[in-house]
Amino acid sequence: MIDSPFKNKLLRDDAGYHVSTLSFAGIELIVPQSEVLSIESIYELESNEDNENYIGVIHKQGIKLPVYCFSRSMDIYKSLPEDRFQCVVLRHEEFLFSLLCNEMTNTVINEIEFHNLPKCMNNSLIPLTHLCVYKGADNMRKLGMVTNAVCLNEYINKLN
Amino acid sequence: MNTDDNGVVAWLLQVDRLVNVAIGQFELIHIIDEPDYMSIPQSPKHCKDVVLWNNNIVPVMSLVSWLTSEIQVDNTGVVAIVVYEDEQGKHKFGGIKLSNAPIQAKVKNSQQCQLTGDFDKWRKVSLSSFKSKTGDIVPIIDVSKLFSQVLLS
């Protein structure tokens, strides 16, 4: 267990840690709620005509944002899965980008412990900052995968 | 391992129908039957999953995947929870996917043998090896090494 610098990015108040959970392809990524700018409809998506890694673009604040779509193992999908309806816009330190999700939920978690990735599985490609154990709404302890916009963007750049 | 007049007590772990490995008597601390895995994206094929055990996040090794370089899709077996010391001397927990529950066995010095041929790969994570009563070569796993970064290279 570690005292994660990631905690600084999670808004914490008396209620607990404010996180957003991005769900797609059967996995859930926990990101700081402060990094989720908005959710745009899939109908806003313009398909990608060029050969880049993103599946399409949406327009936000007068800017074209790339929309990325991942499989369960977080490989890039270039064709649109039928079950993704939400483009979740993430706020990177320097720009915006979007992930195609089944669902995004905002949650307040009372208890969360951050853990480094186990050494035996750690490699530079894993798009996570930490793993975590948290108490779910049903009061059961659960495993979670923690990431943020910087980490996801670095991962996407490595795939390019 | 605990020595006595009859040899050394070890746990035999059946990682698949044809492959057994051994660890020390006190390295095995728990068995989980068909646990809930969480798969980590972009993790190595031999260590794709973690499980939650006693509030610890435990990485789970698939020695079958390591041997074959294929992802082990059958998650119906059991997971042996083992304890080891990391480089800093801290106790850590790891999991090893098994096809059956472990069994205890006594291993005598006279059973010691070399890792040859198909078993050469095991040198990376083995302390030693021995021949079982049925004549199979059984690597004795260095658990600390198994859960270090040695299999990543």
Helices and strands, with pairings:
The complex is a heterodimer of chains A (160) and B (153).
Chain A: E1 11-13, E2 16-24, E3 27-32, E4 36-41, E5 46-47, E6 56-60, E7 63-68, E8 86-91, E9 96-101, E10 103-109, E11 112-115, E12 130-135, E13 141-146, H1 149-159
Parallel strand pairs in A: 3-13, 7-9
Antiparallel strand pairs in A: 1-2, 2-3, 2-10, 4-8, 5-6, 6-7, 8-9, 11-12, 12-13
Chain B: E1 2-4, E2 7-16, E3 19-24, E4 28-33, E5 38-39, E6 49-53, E7 56-61, H1 63-68, E8 78-85, E9 91-98, E10 103-107, E11 126-131, E12 137-141, H2 143-146
Parallel strand pairs in B: 7-9
Antiparallel strand pairs in B: 1-2, 2-3, 2-10, 4-8, 5-6, 6-7, 8-9, 11-12
Account of the 3D structure:
- The complex is a heterodimer of chains A (160) and B (153).
- In chain A, strands 1, 2, 3, 10, 11, 12 and 13 form a 7-stranded mixed β-sheet that branches. Chain A has a 6-stranded mixed β-sheet with strand order 4-8-9-7-6-5, with no helix packed on it.
- The longest helix of chain A has 11 residues, at 149-159.
- Chain A starts with 10 loop residues before the first strand and ends with a helix.
- The mean pLDDT of chain A is 89.
- Chain A is built from 1 helix and 13 strands; from the N terminus they run E-E-E-E-E-E-E-E-E-E-E-E-E-H.
- Chain A is mainly beta.
- In chain A, strand 2 and strand 3 (27-32) form a beta hairpin.
- Chain B has 153 residues and is mostly beta strands.
- Chain B is globular, with a radius of gyration of 15 Å.
- Chain B starts with a strand and ends in a 7-residue tail after the last helix.
- Chain B is 7% helix and 46% strand.
- The mean pLDDT of chain B is 90.
- The interface between A and B is medium-sized, with 25 and 24 residues.
